[in-house]
């Protein structure tokens, strides 16, 4: 907010002579300049949101940051499109020239405009790739890779702005310069340097890969001084396996509590990348960025808990259950799967000793519940559910449906915790 106010003050100082004229052309030029500054400010905000800064992720969680990231992205789209339109229109009115002639003059004679035009094209492509219909058709790796063009676009916009406009001189220039490079420093430190530092510090390596259920595998990772790699149950890491065809960065939750001996991530084969998990060889180097996320038991108010897992969503909940054992908290689990073969960690759940109920949607078995999690099942199996804090993890549609069912029962938003990794 402070940066927003300072930016507006710099704009007013540089553009007030245009505003006071009251003429359409100069006023449009002033508005275009403001949108240009706001666009850069929102770009910097986007960098902060995607930098994986631990204390920010721990406070807000991945899914909330992702929602903010998407909203800011759409606002940014309006800013970067309207910025050149308002400037070209304003100058064409003021100079009494044709719109296209004025646009051509900008490209040919104004410093940094050609670079800004390239940045505009990159930004539009990135925003288009994030639209739901298009995003669903892209592989995660492809969608993730497109974001590296964002850094190039930021650099091009920055060069354009310090060459002309309200922040090209005086104290505004120094402020803008420091602000941009400070944000870039955070991004470089947290997004790139920290994972490299952790890699050399702990020498992460795949110890073994164990099959847990149908198409579900646990990857055990060992390393040096793992007792100093601290994390909370429920958190996740972004992982790169240093091997051909599986080096892409993906988020996975810890499926065990910290033990100082190994890290465990449990993954379901469900895509081009995850289908290769079972083939990872022991000794494969691993780059880990984390821990991240706010899906933990740190901010609980109640002493009783209901965990609801859908398929591979059991992974962070299992770690949370392991951690709650030490505190002797009251926990019950609803665990939904298609068939019994899909249910992972049954042996560990039995060993933990907490009560749990298996719910199968595609298999008739008298030992287990059939169908989907709904109000009737929750009330029957956990009569005091409204008195519990609820943790949900599973596929996006499942979490949305279960959240709706719980709210029908009278549970309020603060009682329900989840972290959505759908990109």
Present the secondary structure layout:
Blueprint (H helix, E strand, L loop, with lengths): L1 H18 L4 H27 L3 H7 L1 H34 L3 H11 L3 H17 L2 H4 L4 H7 L1 H16 L6 H33 L2 E9 L2 E7 L13 E6 L8 E4 L9 E6 L17 E7 L11 E7 L3 H14 L2 E8 L8 H7 L3 E5 L8 E2 L4 H7 L7 E5 L2 H13 L7 E3 L5
Parallel strand pairs: 7-8, 7-11, 8-9, 9-10, 11-12
Antiparallel strand pairs: 1-2, 2-5, 3-4, 3-6
Helix pairs in contact: 1-2, 2-4, 2-9, 2-10, 4-5, 4-6, 6-9
Brief synopsis:
By secondary structure, the chain is α/β, with parallel strands linked by helices. Helices cover 51% and strands 16% of the residues. The strands form three sheets. A six-stranded parallel beta sheet has the order 10-9-8-7-11-12, sandwiched between helices. It has a three-stranded antiparallel beta sheet with strand order 1-2-5, with no helix packed on it. The protein has a three-stranded antiparallel beta sheet with strand order 4-3-6.
Description:
The chain has helices at residues 2-19, 24-50, 54-60, 62-95, 99-109, 113-129, 132-135, 140-146, 148-163, 170-202, 314-327, 346-352, 375-381, 396-408, and strands spanning 205-213, 216-222, 236-241, 250-253, 263-268, 286-292, 304-310, 330-337, 356-360, 369-370, 389-393, 416-418. It is of the alpha/beta class and 423 residues long. The protein folds into three domains: 2-187, no CATH class; 203-292, Translation factors (Elongation Factor Tu (Ef-tu), domain 3), CATH 2.40.30.10; 304-418, Nucleotide-binding domain of ferredoxin-NADP reductase (FNR) module (Rossmann fold, 3-Layer(aba) Sandwich). The mean pLDDT is 83.
């Amino acid at each position: 907010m402070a940066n927003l106010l300072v930016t507006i003050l710099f704009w007013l100082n540089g553009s007030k002579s245009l505003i006071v004229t009251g003429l359409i052309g100069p006023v449009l030029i002033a508005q275009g300049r403001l949108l240009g500054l706001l666009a850069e400010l929102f770009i910097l905000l986007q960098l902060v949101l995607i930098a994986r800064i631990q204390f920010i992720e721990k406070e807000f969680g991945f899914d909330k940051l992702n929602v903010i990231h998407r909203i800011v992205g759409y606002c940014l789209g309006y800013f970067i499109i309207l910025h050149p339109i308002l400037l070209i229109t304003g100058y064409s009115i003021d100079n009494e020239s044709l719109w296209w002639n004025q646009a051509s003059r900008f490209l040919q004679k104004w410093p940094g405009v050609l670079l800004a035009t390239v940045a505009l094209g990159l930004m539009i492509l990135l925003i288009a790739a994030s639209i739901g219909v298009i995003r669903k058709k892209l592989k995660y790796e492809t969608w993730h890779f497109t974001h590296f063009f964002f850094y190039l676009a930021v650099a091009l916009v920055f060069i354009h702005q310090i060459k002309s406009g309200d922040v090209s001189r005086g104290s505004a220039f120094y402020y803008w310069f420091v602000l941009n490079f400070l944000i870039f420093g955070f991004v470089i430190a947290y997004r790139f340097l920290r994972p490299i530092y952790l890699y050399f510090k702990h020498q992460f390596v795949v110890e073994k890969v164990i099959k847990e259920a149908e198409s579900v595998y646990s990857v055990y990772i060992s390393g040096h001084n793992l007792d100093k790699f601290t994390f909370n149950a429920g958190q996740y890491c972004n992982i790169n396996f240093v091997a051909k065809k599986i080096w892409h960065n993906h988020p996975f939750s810890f499926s065990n509590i910290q033990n100082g001996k190994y890290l465990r991530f449990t993954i379901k084969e469900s895509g081009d990348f995850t289908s290769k998990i079972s083939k990872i060889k022991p000794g494969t180097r691993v780059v880990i960025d984390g821990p991240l996320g706010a899906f933990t038991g740190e901010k609980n108010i109640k002493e009783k808990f209901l965990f609801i897992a859908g398929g591979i969503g059991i992974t962070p909940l299992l770690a949370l259950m392991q951690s709650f054992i030490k505190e002797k908290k009251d926990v019950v689990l609803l665990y939904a799967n298609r068939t019994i073969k899909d249910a992972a960690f049954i042996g560990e759940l039995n060993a933990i000793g907490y009560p749990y109920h298996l719910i199968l949607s595609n298999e008739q078995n008298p030992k287990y519940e059939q169908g989907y999690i709904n109000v009737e099942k929750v009330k029957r199996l956990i009569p005091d559910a409204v008195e519990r804090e609820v943790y949900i993890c599973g596929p996006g549609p499942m979490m949305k449906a279960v959240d709706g069912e719980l709210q029908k029962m009278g549970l309020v938003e603060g009682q329900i915790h989840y972290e959505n990794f759908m990109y």
